[in-house]
Design brief:
By secondary structure, the protein is mostly beta strands. It contains four helices and twelve strands.
């Protein structure tokens, strides 16, 4: 469960932004300012997990909706929903939903809304390569390092920014277990009308679901 949440809370760095700076601070400052103007975010994405040690190369499609500190993530096997206080984690295979307090399961990660500004207080960052390329696309390559890596499930986040579009082209998350998780946004919308009901788990939509409440 905690690993799933870690993926949820990292993937939001892939979203679109504009910037005309060429240093990591200028670009990230632009991202922070723009993110604060978004009321909602909706995106379809592709994530790839590579772990050479475990001989794993896994790709999956997903969708995420974000509104402030609330989010609704849909993955092939899981649905993870939070209203900013409570987290519902639904396992499609077992038809089981566990309920937790968000504060109890964060485990060094952070919620999606924090990811847009987390580097302001919890990260060091640098422009690693101002002339990088990704699949032939000219990009800025920014590396971000958490100030307290022992408390995080990763040690580095690499962001590739398309120079022409000024959008995040690719994100690579390097975990403490020597695996890499990359994210590619397929489409991206902001300020769309997202009903509040999207951010609470509705058992009626999952007939026969077993509810497991872990809250104290």
């Amino acid at each position: 469960m905690k690993k799933v949440l870690a993926l949820v809370l990292i993937l939001t760095t892939t979203f679109t932004f504009q910037s005309f700076g060429q240093t990591s601070k200028e670009i990230l400052d632009k991202l922070s300012a723009k993110a604060k103007t978004w009321k909602t975010i909706t995106s379809d994405f592709t994530s790839t997990l590579k772990d050479a040690k475990a001989n794993v190369n896994q790709k999956q499609e997903g969708n995420i909706k974000i509104k402030g500190q609330k989010y609704h993530l849909n993955l092939p096997q899981y649905v993870v929903i939070s209203d900013g206080v409570t987290v519902w984690s639904y396992d499609k295979k077992s038809n089981t939903c566990t309920i937790d307090n968000l504060a109890d399961v964060k485990d060094g990660a952070f919620d999606p809304s924090e990811m847009f500004t987390i580097w302001e207080k919890d990260f060091k960052h640098e422009m690693k390569n101002a002339n990088a390329t990704v699949d032939g696309v000219a990009c800025y390559e920014i590396h971000m390092y958490p100030n307290n890596p022992k408390n995080k499930p990763y040690h580095t986040i690499v962001m590739y920014v398309d120079k022409t579009k000024m959008e995040a082209n690719k994100i690579v998350v390097k975990t403490r277990e020597n695996a890499e998780i990359s994210y590619k946004v397929k489409n991206f919308k902001t300020n769309s009308d997202t009903p509040e009901g999207e951010f609470k788990f509705n058992p009626a939509k999952y007939p026969g679901v077993e509810m497991v409440d872990n809250r104290i």
